[in-house]
Write a structure and sequence with these properties.
Belongs to the peptidase M20A family. Keywords: Cobalt, Hydrolase, Metal-binding, Zinc. The chain has ten helices and 19 strands. By secondary structure, it is α+β, with helices and mostly antiparallel strands. The strands form five sheets. The protein has a six-stranded mixed β-sheet, with helices on both faces.
Length: about 425
């Protein structure tokens, strides 16, 4: 791809950026929390049809996925769960095929009064767009769509097959991405524009979700000593898993990528529910937890370690020793992933990055996870993850930096043109 073609594509991104932001605002405005992603999928389907893509929009059947590597249990109503894929088929096959994927599900906003502006009424100020999902990762998804638009607006069309995929469940199980692979979508490479602050994810953690279900013995609080407090017992188990977290972080010091980080394994008790009455010793407590594992660590083996840790802690507790807690696997059962065997797509992206940013792209050792794992681990498809800068993901006042979004869109457009090839319209 010559310099003139590159510049025409870059200029087209600039020319279309206001339209890109308008589409991003509309996308962020949809409160697509878990189980409510349908309107976002409708919007993506419409955007793809308007552009002439061949659209596949289907309901996800969990039974088709449950035996695949990386499947996580679904506990909520999944009857309306859908994946949407738009396919571009070239007139001339000369380049390499590509999957472009984004997830439209977002995490809950939390107490609305703690946001400076409403989370689903996106606002642009000080060079940033604020709103739930603006950073993670709706701006990246729309950026990928407008990267394709820029290629067309510059007078070119790709010369390879492209699947533009909008998935759900990235924040809790990953079965949306898994469903596209079960459906049969494949390519020579995958690119996921998660917010990475302009760095390429080199290695990322896997995640295990589990629920501690603790029973107590209720009494009137006036006689608390004769009962057993399930909430306090759950805290005893949390402390035990915190010690396991320390052990796993010691092991992480042997990992070639994660040894550079101080504390890559993070354990989080994220949801707690328990008890029925402030003056009754609580009879039950459920704690939903998340803990990370590193690439190459077995999910099954580390599930066993969690179970053994909880069982040992229960044996050392007056009440739990005879009333052991239960563990439920409540979502992610995900392997870590290291980007390997990706020399060709990385070389293509390196050219795009150098043109837009100058120099070489930095690696990111990522203490969260992305859907890239399914492509690399399950099917040997090299899966790149790169995107814009932002902040407060999963927190209040989430935002994406707009200058970084424009740059990442330009890098995506040039990468698509380099990897897939282009010809004049």
């Amino acid at each position: 791809m010559n310099a003139e073609t590159q510049q025409r594509i870059l200029d087209a991104v600039d020319a279309g950026f206001e339209a890109q932001l308008a589409t991003t605002r509309d996308f962020v405005a949809i409160p697509s929390t878990r189980g409510a992603e349908g309107p976002c999928q409708d919007m993506i389907g419409d955007l793809l049809r308007e552009r002439g893509y061949e659209v596949d929009d289907w309901h996800i059947n969990v039974d088709d996925l449950k035996d695949l590597r990386g499947f996580g249990p679904i506990e909520h109503d999944f009857s309306k769960a859908r994946s949407v894929v738009g396919t571009y088929r070239p007139q001339t096959n000369a380049g390499k095929s590509l999957i472009l994927q984004g997830h439209c599900d977002v995490v809950p906003a939390g107490p609305l009064e703690l946001w400076d502006t409403p989370p689903f009424s996106p606002v642009i100020k000080d060079g940033k767009m604020f709103g739930r999902g603006a950073c993670d990762m709706k701006s990246g998804t729309i950026g990928a769509l407008h990267a394709l638009d820029a290629i067309k607006a510059a007078g070119f069309k790709p010369t390879a097959r492209i699947h533009f995929q909008s998935v759900i469940e990235e924040e809790s199980t990953g079965v949306g991405a898994l469903s596209t692979l079960q459906r049969g979508y494949r390519a020579d490479a995958c690119f996921i524009p998660e917010p990475t602050s302009g760095k390429m994810v080199r290695s990322q953690v896997g995640v295990i979700w589990f629920r501690l279900r603790v029973k107590g013995h209720p009494t009137h609080v006036a006689f608390a000593g004769s009962g057993a407090n399930a909430i306090m017992a759950a805290y005893h188990l949390i402390q035990a898993v915190q010690k396991l977290e320390i052990e796993w972080n010691e092991r992480a010091k042997a990992d070639r990528h994660f040894k550079t980080l101080n504390h890559p394994i993070n354990f989080n008790p994220g949801i707690i529910k328990g008890g029925d009455w402030a003056s009754s010793v609580p009879a039950w407590c459920d704690v939903d937890c998340r803990i990370a594992i590193l690439p190459g660590w077995s999910v099954a083996d580390h599930q066993k370690e969690i179970a053994a840790c909880v069982a040992a802690a229960a044996r050392n507790h007056r009440f739990l020793a005879n009333n052991p807690p239960e563990i439920e696997w409540s979502g992610f059962l995900s392997d870590g992933y290291e980007l390997t065997d990706a020399a060709a797509p990385e070389a293509a992206f390196a050219k795009a990055f150098d043109k837009v940013y100058g120099g070489a792209v930095e690696d990111l050792v990522f203490t969260a996870l992305t859907d890239t794992r399914f492509y690399g681990l399950n099917y040997g498809i090299p899966s790149l993850c790169f995107g814009a800068s932002g902040g407060e993901m999963h927190g209040f006042n989430e935002f994406v930096d707009l200058d970084s979004l424009k740059k990442s869109t330009k890098a995506m457009a040039l990468f698509i043109a380099e990897w897939c090839g282009v010809e004049k319209v």
